[in-house]
Structure formats: C-alpha cells, structure tokens
Amino acid sequence: MSCEANLLKYRRVEAKQEVFYQVVFDQTPFYATGGGQVGDSGEMIGGQNRSIEIFSTQNALGETLHHVKEEPKGYEKVTLKVNRSLRISSAKNHSATHLLHQALREVLGAHVEQRGSLVNASYLRFDFSHFEKVSPEKLDEIEHKVNARIEQSIALEEHRSIDLERAKQMGAMALFGEKYSDQVRCIQFENSIELCGGTHVQNTSEIGLFKITSESSVASGIRRIEALTSLTAVEFLSSKAAQLDQIQQALKTKDVLTSISQLKSEKQALEKKVMALEKHQAMQLAEHLDQEAVDVDGVSVIAKKVEVSSSAQKDLIFALKNKPGRLIFLATIQNKKPTISLGISDDLVQSKGLHAGSIIKSLAQKIKGGGGGAPTFATAGGADASNLAALIEQVKSLKIDV
Q1: Out of 202-216, 304-318, 350-364, which region has the weakest mean confidence (pLDDT)?
Q2: Residues 6+ apart with CB under 8 A from 57
Q3: What is the DSSP code (8-state) at residue 47?
Q4: Which helix (H) or strand (E) holds 9?
Q5: Do residue 100 and residue 240 come from a single domain?
Q6: CA 90 to CA 143: how far, in whole Å?
Q7: Are 37 and 50 found together in one domain?
Q8: Percentage of the chain surpassing pLDDT 90?
Q9: Is there a domain that residue 273 lies in?
Q10: Strand residues in 108-234 grouped as ranges (E)
C-alpha cells in the first residue's frame, strides 16, 4: 500500500480543457488501469510532509503514469501511499468478477466468455457472450453460487510469473481482447482460474456479500451484468428494505403483491369506465359539432378546438367524417402542448385528391411539430400552441396546402 520512491520524470498535459501532470517514479505500489480494473488513487508525500493527491493511475508503454493536478517540482524523494479503502473495495469487486464468470459458465453454459468488464471501488460490470436474456431464476442461481463461494472462505492461490502454456494446462481462462506475454500471472480460487494482473482479496470471505443489480443487453449476443459487493451491497439491500417498508405503510398491508394486484385491477376497471365515458361525451359533442359545419366551396368544414383526449379526438373525427363532402379539423392542448387531427371523407379524397397525411404535415409546422397519416385521417403533435386559433381559421377557409 506504500513505498519510498524517487521521482524520475514528469510532464505537463492539457486534455479536455484540463491541465494535469503525469509523473513517473522508480518504483510504485499503485495499480495502473488494466484488465478492466480502474487504477489506484492516493497521494505522494514529500519533504516537510507536503502532500499532492494522485487522482488516477494509468499504464502507458510499460510505465506507470501517476496523475496529479499540481506540478511536482521539488518532490525528488517521496512516500507513495495508495488510498487503502478504495484499493480494498476494488479488490473485492475484482475477485467477485472472477467468481461471477465461473458461475455464469456453470449456469448458462461453456459458451459464456468475457467480452469486457469494469471494476472500481463502487461496483463491477461484466459483459459476456450469451444469446438471450438471463431469466430472474437463473440470475438468482448465479448470485447464490457466488455467495456460496464467498461463504466457503476460499483462499487465493496466486501463481506469479508462470509459463503461459502451463497456465492454460491448469485451465486458466484468458480475458477477451487481452494480449499476454510468455510469462503470466494466474489468479485461482479453487476452480476459478484466470489470467489476471489486477488486485484481489486473499480469501473470498473478505468479499462479504454479492448482489446483482441489473442484467441487460449491450449488443447482439452480448449481455451485461452489474453487481455490488460488501457494504455497498448491504446498503443497497437496506435501501430496498426501507422502500418496501414505506410501500407497506402506504398500502397499510404486509401483503404488498396482493395489494398491488388489486390496485392494478381497480385501475384497469376505472380506465375502461373513463374510456366509455369519453366515448359517450365524444358522441354528444359530435352531434353538437355536426351542427356547426360550414360550407366552403362545396366542402362541409368543421374546424374547432375541443377539450377531449387524443383517443376521443380520433373517435370524434371518425364519427363526423362518415357524411360525404366532410373535412374535420380538431385541436386540443394537453400539458401545454397542442395536438391536431384531420379527417376527410372518402368521397373528397377521391374527387378532390385531398390527402390528410400531406395536409397535416404542412399544418404541423405552425405548431412547431410534425406528424402524418393516411388520406382520410392524420394527426400531429407540436410544442407551440400560440398559433392554434389562426390555424383553425386557416382551415375554416380551406386555405390549406393539399
């Protein structure tokens, strides 16, 4: 976690409107980013206990680059100290990643191979080859296998500087996309054997707890699992338990699933009643609007702003456009955003070549929106309702781009 070191060289770097320094020492305890694990952070301490924060560490051309924001002038001899807490957390997550890989192959099959990973102090992310979504039941089984190996207190077997061929004979799994030299490092927790240069726990029991938080698709044939370990996993589960308590209190029941099922059924029943009521109101409004139709050059035009839902708006138009020679334009405002719909009777489409979809695209520009549809019905949404009244008057006079 720490060592004495001599500063060999440093350089100033400007990147993404940020200035920092890359520093190289003759030796270092810092782990540099590699194999999916994020590099260490910590500090360098010079004479008179002057300290500079090392906010990240990377490897480039075989050298460990320590990133600092302050020029390390006068720091020829220093003490390098790794952030112990972050290192330990990263090690737990890295070892848990190896156990996860093993469990995935056992549960899903030997076709599972690593396709990428991220390990830091907060969480772990593991991408792997698989042809379908992993079911909740299989995720539970995978999680159980990892936690079982944590509980078994399996000691780390670290094989340093062994021949690559010997490691393969041991059954070691190489990481996807990694290039290896003839001499490699092998990390083993019983049957979990992988080539790896990262930091690890000395015993699986140090991981404490493993909890999968998500499973998703990254690309075709590639899935991703994210997970937590140790106290971070405990805090996650505590948060979920607190949320459950709040839900139970709000529902005034301990049987949350039954209550939610009842609420869903009640919601669906109410939605059906609302839809039926809206349809009834729409039919009543249709009778009223039918009386407001005006004749413009042989076309019966209805253009009006109405206070109905978008689905009721559609019902209205289909009820009104059944009469021949009819063009109906309706507008609504919901959540301060306008929606416009246009219906044209079949005979007008055939005799005058009108197309509701083409007309609505032109009209939608006035409300800063877009839309489209069929020859007899089209709809559009927009962001600006200020021109709605003028738009209604435009349609009333049939000054529309057909």
Answers
A1: 304-318
A2: 28, 30, 31, 32, 33, 39, 40, 41, 64, 65, 66, 67
A3: G
A4: strand 2-15
A5: yes
A6: 19
A7: yes
A8: 73
A9: no
A10: 114-119, 124-129, 157-163, 183-189, 192-195, 210-219, 222-229
Pull the structure tokens for residue 255.
């049987």
> Quick one: which of 333, 327, 341 has its CA closest to 398?
327
pLDDT score at 292 = 87
Tokens of 139: 């995720």
Task: Note the helical H segments in 291-339.
Answer: 310-320
Main-chain phi, psi angles of 68, to 5 degrees: -130, 155
Q: Specify whether the CB–CB gap between 215 and 128 falls below 8 A.
A: no
In a domain, 59, yes or no: yes
Please determine, for residue 57, whether its predicted confidence score (pLDDT) is greater than 90: yes
* Within a domain: 15: yes
Residues 358 and 294 in one domain: yes
Alpha helices in 11-83 (DSSP H): none
Residues 6 or more apart from 97 whose CB is under 8 A from it?
A: 36, 117, 119, 124, 126
CA angle 374, 380, 386 (to 5 degrees): 145
DSSP letters spanning 109-133: -TT--EEEEEE-SS-EEEEEE-SSP
Instruction: List strand residue ranges (DSSP E) for 16-167, in order.
Output: 18-25, 42-45, 51-54, 56-60, 63-68, 77-82, 114-119, 124-129, 157-163
Structural domains counted in the chain: 3
| Residue ranges making up the domain that contains 195 | 87-247
According to the model, what pLDDT value does residue 281 have?
80
Assess contact for 41 and 83: CB atoms under 8 A.
yes
Question: Is pLDDT of 402 > 90?
Answer: no
Would you say residue 177 has pLDDT above 70?
A: no
CATH code of 45's domain: 2.40.30.130
From 58, 82, 106, the end of a domain falls on 82
Q: Other C-beta atoms within 10 Å of 252: how many?
A: 7
pLDDT for res 56 = 95
Q: Which of 184-193, 245-254, 314-323 is the least confident region?
A: 314-323
CATH of the domain at 362: 3.10.310.40
Residue 232 located in a structural domain: yes
